[in-house]
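In practice, a research group might receive sequence data for several interacting partners and want a quick structural hypothesis before committing to experiments. The following worked case mirrors that situation: the sequences arrive first, and a predicted assembly follows.
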Amino acid sequence: MREVPRRYRVAARREEFPGTTTLDLQPVEPSPAADFAPGRFAMLGTFAGEVPISLAGVESYPTLRHTVRAVGGASAALAELGEGEELWLRGPFGRGWPVDDLVRGPVVIVAGGLGLAPLRPLLLALEARGVALSLFYGMRRPEEMLYRQEVVGWAARFPVHLSADRADPGWSGTVGVITRPLAQAPIPAEAGVALCGPEVMMRLAARLLVERGLDPGRIYLSMERNMHCATGHCGHCQWGPWFVCRDGPVFRYAEVAPWLDLREV
Amino acid sequence: MITAAELAAAHPFLAGLDPERAAFLAGCARLARFRAGEFLTREGQAAESCFLLLEGRVSVEIHVPGGGARPLLTARGGEVVGWSWLVPPFRYRFDARALVPTRALSLAAQCVRTKCEDDPRLGYLLLKRLAAALLDRLQEARLQLADLYAAPAGGRR
Amino acid sequence: MSTGILPAERLDALIGELWAAGYTVIGPVREGGALLYDEVRGSEDLPVGLVDRQEGGRYFLEPSGDGRFFGHTVAATPWKRFLDPPRRRLWRAERRNGQLHFLVETEEEVRFAFLGVRACDLHGIRIRSAVAEAGPEPDEALLDRRRSALMVAVQCTRAGGTCFCADLGTGPAVDLPADLVLTELLEDGPHRFLAESRTEAGAKILQRLSLGPAGEVDRAAAARAVAATRRTLAERSPRLEREGLRELLYRQLESPLWDEVAGRCLSCANCTLVCPTCFCSAVEDVTDLEGARLERWHRADSCFTAEFSQIHGGPVRASTRARYRQWLVHKLAYWSDQFGEPGCVGCGRCITWCPVGIDLTEVVRDLRRREAEESGERER
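A structural hypothesis for the assembly, expressed as tokens:
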């Protein structure tokens, strides 16, 4: 807790769409090796505040990739950082995706909105290990798609279902909710699942997949709560018996299903 | 002419229908093909058919003057398009336009309605399936409206 | 390890030895109409001749009619404010020419001697320390302060009005290895303390006091005094039945009773402030006007505040119902999943200091009773 954050510099930035930016971060000083596994998160800070941001990629460690959406003062300051500017990082924290279980494949990845960010490093790791993948990606509008070029590349290599709540007639994906293609597409019953997106979407998708015969013990989802200290000591991110920052953010659906149906816990 | 067995196997909407009723209903069905861009239904026109999509992709949309087509949802093989056939005034509520070459079972509305009046049990079966499909559509439309992926207004951090 | 008799008039010698050994001595002191824990220089700082009367939403001090130093029970605020200071700076940062510079905060090393820790509070300190130890990144600052502290426990010779330690097995006898354990005696002899050391550090202090030996009479008097407290507690027991507690609460998360409690709860956070185990905190960044310097502060927080459960759209627990439920269910059920035991020690402070007198044990009893009634109705 007394640990001082580490200095990072923005090595590259790309605006995904207005208000949402992907940052490649390089340590300013040599820092100890840390386990930036897919699904873990870091606390990123500037003088405007500190926020938990999922790791969106580590292809060229120690450079880290994070995608930030400006929703408040702290996140806006991060999203607006220019190349070469400094910020701080604490972490990585939490339990990420169970790659060793999922690598048994096949794997269905279900992303909603910004939820693709923490799924991206998982997807890359699984693809590199030859796992049969399919991606279901729901978004608000086609203009608000993350990693557009990469998504196009993925679609050439494995099934990618894109669905937007609203779209213009030129849109090649479907219009509607992502649970529709999830209900219709062929999904092997032995598939593992990784879910990240708005809680409502995750709840409905997980329920639907269990109805389709998938094992709730192999459905994983990444939860959002108020991560503050990120080390399980401040109590803010508690969700039922869990500290999301320490016991999560990735949980096994079979363990948390009843808690997803309770309100305000 | 479509056989009863083909009909029942062709589309989940009719799956499990008993052979007698399937045969009864087959009399109302024909296979329809649409080229990309072709309309299955047009808003305001008489709802003469209900389409059970076999394969392809159909955009259900509404035409906005000056804005062109506004897509509302995309239907695929296994779904049903054109639900206005069952209840007065028997007029389509939306445009349905094939996005790619599309095949569908077209059920003649008048024919099905007559058969349902003659066999209320069949009518009830179809209505239950239609209600289930409608419920899914309604939930989905509401979720789209809920705008779940939007950045929150007044986020603090 | 060793036992002796400390005459009441030599209590100052003990306090003096503690200071001399380099400890900052903290004990019960009177502050306005209540007892708090604060610095004790000598026995005259202690609330001699005072007892506390505690009940739901009420607390007052009155003369005991005898000269006891420790006739009271637990003070209003728990010891945690010394082990886990409610406000402290963690680090500082400066921005110079676009570069960030960090300064680690070195904390002044204070070794505390806690004089007059009750059995329940020792458990509270133990449970709070277990929270600090958990996980991959323990709260070493708290653990350091705990490790360097000396515990001078006092056994309860009277049960407080809201106590229920016996139900949780945390009292009234001191069963944890405190450094020293005192039992204040008035009967069968002069005003004195039976003093036992239970650690090396405690033994050293006793040695320096060169106490007279404790006799069978003293031991018997001490045992009787604690037994009397145990009897009082037993008479009103069980206030909190532990059997099946966690499961009961998990079954009753949607009980309408939470709404009824929420109708009374003011969300004032008093219960979390006085609880010896409540650990929630916040980190807060303070910048100067130029935006060149920043300080990271740790401060105590409460699950009763609106911002506590804030996620990007708003608070997860928006209602008082949800916040009260979170507090109680965390304390008595989630805690068991997280740390292997409930987070309650039965000190009763949350009952006493609730401005509307909400009693968590009563809430649990109501939940149990209603569940029993409902299952009875179903069976009929």
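Before designing any experiment, note the following. The interface with chain C takes residues 152, 154-157 of chain B (CB under 8 Å). Chain B has one domain: 4-145.
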